[in-house]
Write a structure and sequence with these properties.
single chain, 152 residues, alpha+beta, Aminopeptidase, globular
Length: 152
């Protein structure tokens, strides 16, 4: 059984100095069908008016990537992307990152719900999101199941 993370997790802006470290983070080959690469995510973010994205660090070590669709005009907040490098999975970093993201969403206008979608399947993130309290909405976005977490 994996031990819980003892490192401090931070959500950090990606800079010219850190971009290559973030681009080099990868999930396992079996997980690639569940999450886009960080290169694709960062490209999408740069062409979106509502993307809020950060590198996930454990102390000074980059371990993952998180991205939010931060649309205060709807207002709707959607966990758009979450990945933890294969070498750092099972240490609690994803949970800590999502909890920090939740704290951020709570500061946004009408930030009382956080949505996520995922492709169901063996090795996918369904159990992770269920443990955090996300509930299925009954809606789908193509092949992705949509879930919501109430933040009040």
């Amino acid at each position: 059984m994996n031990k819980p993370a003892t490192n401090t997790v931070h959500l950090v802006e990606i800079t010219e100095d850190t971009i290559n470290d973030i681009l080099n983070l990868k999930v396992t080959p079996q997980q690639e069908k569940f999450v886009a690469s960080n290169a694709v995510s960062i490209a999408q973010a740069h062409f979106s008016k509502t993307a809020w994205f950060r590198a996930i660090y454990a102390n000074d070590q980059p371990v993952g990537f998180i991205m939010l669709d931060d649309n205060e005009k709807k207002p709707e907040y959607f966990l758009w992307r979450l990945m933890i490098d294969a070498r750092f999975q099972g240490k609690g970093y994803a949970k800590q990152a999502v909890l920090q993201l939740i704290d951020y969403v709570k500061t946004r206008p009408n930030g009382n719900q956080l949505y996520v979608s995922y492709v169901p399947g063996t090795g996918g993130p369904e159990k992770f999101y269920q443990k955090l309290g996300f509930k299925a909405t009954g809606e789908w976005d193509e092949d992705e199941k949509i879930c919501c977490l109430a933040l009040n």
